[in-house]
Write a structure and sequence with these properties.
Strand content: 25-35%
Structural class: alpha/beta
Order of helices and strands: HHEEEHEHEEEHEHEHEHH
Radius of gyration: 22 Å
Helix content: 25-40%
């Protein structure tokens, strides 16, 4: 049997490396013209955090979905919403599976090392919750407690930074799994947002779930790949416009039954 030549082997190695480099390389920054030329806006969204994101009749729905639909309308392109999770939303963005995220993604300096944020379009309060008969007035009181959180969430970040070393933080793939861990007794407390917490308390009255500590107020931004300054400028202009013409307030009224709260700009 003839052995392959060195040149043949080298060619195959080079080809394999080129394919790997192409598929593994992060997606490039985008412009408005890129979206217009493609004729479609692909948006990543959490679908397990109502009323921000949920599934209705098998389709993504909620506050974030309505904002994405309005963006596509103003751009004049089709919309594809891709369900994402807390852990995979940045990888989906950086590898080009989505153009941007409306994924209840809190704006932080740490995250801004990887992605680029628009001005805020929504807000949420991150809380530590537990049973009414459990006294928690400071982080010192959660020493030796087990706390369930969604992995890579704002509550995970806040607790990791401030909880005593003896606190056990149980991390799950999403808020629903973290909630189930608390309800099943795997955790003493739960880190969550005010929206999920209200639903969890309302559907499980015997648990007596209540807010113990406010971890932080979280402002959410539409999230893009770093360097997408042209597209970010359009998104900021879009958000400024719909905040001032009442369309964003109408979306907030629809899903939260209250006026849009004040949102900072930067």
């Amino acid at each position: 049997m003839l052995q392959p030549s060195f040149r043949t082997i080298a060619r195959k190695v080079i080809l394999a490396f080129a394919v790997f480099a192409f598929t593994a390389a992060p997606a490039l920054a985008q412009t408005v013209d890129d979206i217009l030329k493609k004729g479609k806006l692909t948006v990543g969204m959490l679908v397990d955090l109502p009323p921000f994101g949920l599934m209705t009749d098998g389709k993504p729905d909620g506050y974030d979905a309505d904002v994405a639909k309005l963006m596509a309308k103003y751009l004049g392109v089709d919309l594809e919403i891709v369900p994402v999770t807390g852990p995979n939303r940045i990888p989906y963005l950086l590898t080009g599976k989505v153009d941007m995220l409306t994924a209840t993604f809190g704006i932080t300096p740490e995250r801004a090392k990887q992605v680029q944020f628009s001005i805020p379009y929504s807000t949420i309060e991150i809380q530590l919750l537990g049973p009414k008969d459990t006294k928690i007035t400071s982080f010192d009181d959660i020493a030796n407690k087990k706390v369930s959180v969604a992995r890579a969430s704002s509550q995970d970040t806040a607790l990791t930074a401030q909880a005593p070393k003896s606190t056990t933080i149980l991390r799950f793939d999403d808020d629903a799994s973290a909630g189930q861990a608390y309800l099943s007794g795997q955790a003493d407390l739960i880190g969550s947002n005010n929206v999920t917490a209200l639903q969890l308390a309302a559907t499980n009255p015997p648990k007596g779930l209540e807010k113990k500590l406010a971890l932080r107020s979280q402002y959410q931004g539409i999230t893009l790949r770093r360097g997408s300054d042209d597209l970010r400028q359009w998104v900021n202009t879009f958000l400024f416009f719909i905040k001032n013409n009442g369309e964003l307030d109408a979306i907030n009224q629809k899903w939260f039954h209250e006026p849009l709260p004040p949102l900072p700009v930067f």
